[in-house]
Amino acid sequence: MRIATVVVTIRDRRTGRSAAASLDMRIFAYPFDNVRFLNNQVPPYDLTYSDVFMVPNRSAVGSRLDVDLTTRDGSGTTIPIVVANMTAVAGRRMAETVARRGGIAVIPQDIPLDVVADVVQWVKSRHLVHDTPITLGPTDTVGDALNLLPKRAHNAVIVVEAGRPIGVVTEADCQGVDRFTQLAQVMSTELLTLPDGIDPQEAFDRLHEGRHRLAPVVDGDGRLVGILTRTGALRATLYQPAVDAAGKLRVAAAIGINGDVAHKAKYLLDAGVDLLVVDTAHGHQEKMISALRAVRALDPQVPIVAGNVVTREGVRDLVEAGADIVKVGVGPGAMCTTRMMTGVGRPQFSAVLECAAEARRLGKHVWADGGIRHPRDVALALAAGAANVMIGSWFAGTYESPGDVHRDADGRQYKESFGMASARAVQLRTAKDTPFERARKALFEEGISTARMYLDPERPSVEDLIDSIVAGLRSACTYAGARNLEEFHERAVIGVQSLAGFTEGMPLPTSW
Ligand SMILES: NC(=O)C1=CN([C@@H]2O[C@H](COP(=O)(O)OP(=O)(O)OC[C@H]3O[C@@H](n4cnc5c(N)ncnc54)[C@H](OP(=O)(O)O)[C@@H]3O)[C@@H](O)[C@H]2O)C=CC1
Ligand SMILES: Nc1nc2c(ncn2[C@@H]2O[C@H](COP(=O)(O)O)[C@@H](O)[C@H]2O)c(=O)[nH]1
Ligand SMILES: [K+]
């Protein structure tokens, strides 16, 4: 939808006097009514992110830091990033870390309900500023430390005695000694500690002055309560955590459409999820509609997300059945083979464009789910009208995803990812079924079971990736002359490019 101001001049023929009146008109026109195409050239075919670009507009936004990235869909995110409900991607460390920076993670439907409830409680007990430390005792070994270090990006184990920090061990301290060496022998004991509740900027300054990369955070009794790095302190001044009404970090969870949907939904709502996702491959099916009605009948006090669909009819039916937010995307996912197996799906930019227009018309929202590989894709999804953007596989290759870090023959670090409709996921999901049922369900594989998602040595943490996405997005908004995401969607001007046009935009690490 666009708002056009029409000025009407009325002239009295008898007196020759004229008067002007202006009125605002809301303009709707399918299919691309909600975004402007460059020179009004609307292509006759569907597009994905790589097919399109944005041109800059005259801008009055003086700084990229003036852009407000808060979303408007009731999800409570202060940056438009949602971590996909994939077993290889969204666990409790991911949920904590992303919510602290303003996003939200969706715990997958394949995790047992009582475990999800524990994760929710755990995330809600996390601090809004400092990170959860990795702790070991002085008699634990270098081997123990090396196993735990890749779990968190701060790259340090705090050695604790009676709850108080007595040393810090980093990966460098573990080099050149055997794995059974006790931590007391390698830890650094020159500790700077920071008091709980310290202002992040002051924490940054103290760390800088003391030439420390990080410091344990302690309470009034000197007991360890967290860890803060210089980068963490800086980020705490730039991001706003996504919090619930009680000021606790937000977290979401997903359910499927099979089994006792109402029971599962009630369990998760009682466990305190801030948002419930009802998720299946083919979201525009009657089983989904009845699942949604069952969830709506519980009168949930949190937004209900449902998907996936790629057409306006899909949006309409899911909204009618009770969805507040509709998840858009069939086949763009990095782990997804649906389009190759079935020929079904839709290029994601056009899918988001059409579905977002329909959701807006109904006073609802969409999330763009899948196919995000660069920060530009996030910007384009939002320009197309998405309220939030869901990212899976890209985040699998980070310290915070649940998998273990492996090294390839060249020593490069990676984690394994897999699709939620892959044989691997289906095997896990159907573990309690009869062998016959399992064999039957295994036939319908629509995802890959193993993919190597490399950790970027420059950006190994999900927070590093968020930094680059948010930097790209802030910049995109100022290029468009937008102070917030709504203005960004209204002002974005989209052009269509050839593959050569896309390739031209890539950096060139060596000469041609
Ligand atoms: N966004 C995407 O492109 C896709 C996403 N996924 C993800 O994989 C996960 C698992 O989803 P899903 O496979 O739906 O498993 P679910 O466990 O959610 O079951 C899907 C249900 O829908 C029925 N169904 C009917 N038609 C279809 C269809 N075309 N594809 C799949 N199920 C169908 C199935 O019955 P029956 O088995 O008897 O046919 C089953 O009862 C979800 O997280 C989903 O997001 C999966 C594929 C595509
Ligand atoms: N067709 C399939 N789609 C899948 C599968 N597992 C996940 N997904 C979808 O992908 C997105 C995430 O996309 P990504 O590009 O960021 O990885 C996720 O939210 C699902 O909608 C699958 O096995 N098959
Ligand atoms: K794909």
TrEMBL record:
Reaction equations catalysed: IMP + NH4(+) + NADP(+) = GMP + NADPH + 2 H(+)
Cofactor(s) demanded: a monovalent cation
Record-linked PROSITE patterns: CBS
CBS domain residues: 128-185, 187-243
Active site feature: C336 (thioimidate intermediate)
Cited InterPro entries: Aldolase_TIM, CBS_dom, CBS_dom_sf, GMP_reductase, GUAB1, IMP_DH, IMP_DH_GMPRt
Catalytic activity, EC: 1.7.1.7
Binding site for NADP(+): D279, T280, A281, G329, V330, G331
CDD domains: CBS_pair_SF, IMPDH
Binding-site list for NAD(+): D279, T280, A281, G329, V330, G331
A Pfam family that the UniProt record links to this protein: CBS
Binding site for K(+): G331, G333, C336
Gene3D superfamilies named among the record's database cross-references: Aldolase class I (3.20.20.70)
Record-level Gene Ontology MF annotations: GMP reductase activity; IMP dehydrogenase activity
Domain of life assignment: Bacteria
Keywords: CBS domain, NAD, NADP, Oxidoreductase, Potassium, Purine salvage, Repeat
Pathway: Purine metabolism; IMP biosynthesis via salvage pathway
GO cellular component: cytosol
Biological process terms in GO annotation: IMP salvage; purine ribonucleoside salvage
Function: Involved in the purine-salvage pathway. Catalyzes the NADPH-dependent conversion of GMP to IMP.
The name this protein goes by in its record: GMP reductase
Organism encoding this protein: Carbonactinospora thermoautotrophica
